[in-house]
Amino acid sequence: MAAQVQKKLFTVEEYYKMAEVGIIPPDARVELINGEIIEMSPIKSNHAGHVRRINAFLNRVLAERAIIDIQNPIYISPNIEPQPDIMILKLSPDFYTARHPKPEDVYLLIEVADSSVRYDQETKLPLYAHAGIAEVWILNLKKRCIQLYRHPQNGVYTVQEMAQDDDMLHLPFFNVAIEASDLLG
Q1: Closest Cα to residue 128, out of 96, 95, 160, 80?
Q2: Tens of pLDDT, residues 80-114
Q3: What number of other Cβ atoms are within 10 A of residue 45's Cβ?
């Protein structure tokens, strides 16, 4: 008779406790997805450069109208706390020092994907849709395009579009249009 193997799934609280006591090293690149601690891909220079460029650009365009958050956690549920590349967040007087942002705090979430396109599309995107995050963009570095996902319903985005260099993008909740090339570099 074969023994049934069970995974031990963790809560956000347990995840932070493991970091506190040193089980998870301070420099570990991990995120909590469905109770599992997932090791994230190393950040290559192309990926890092795009995140920096987008950060600088969005801070110029949205100065004092939103918080641009880079590679920090978003609390989705007691066992889901991913670390997206970029989030445009609602203003908060304490800059979210008392708690991590939640889905209702997010105007737009952006994942920059080089080697992680499939993971972002198949694992993270459904989590964001289930959480009700209104709009997610995946900057696909290999195909040099931006995949736009809007209007989540029942765990899927009902509107999916693709933008390339000369296409205009509209930032949600702001009366701002930008060219895709501003993000693609």
Answers
A1: 80
A2: 999 999 999 999 999 999 999 999 999 999 999 99
A3: 7
Give 81's DSSP letter.
Answer: B
Local structure of 94: helix, strand or coil:
coil
Report CA dihedral (78, 80, 81, 82) to the nearest 10 degrees.
-170
Tokens of 137: 């963009």
User: Residue 54 belongs to what H/E stretch?
Assistant: helix 45-61
Strands 30-33 and 168-171: unpaired
Domain spanning 43-184, CATH class: alpha beta
pLDDT tens digits for 32-71? Answer: 999 999 999 889 999 999 999 999 999 999 999 999 999 9
**Sign (positive or negative) of CA dihedral 27, 77, 87, 68:** negative
| Both structure tokens of 28 | 């570990």
pTM given for the model: 0.94
Return the amino acid letter for 81.
E
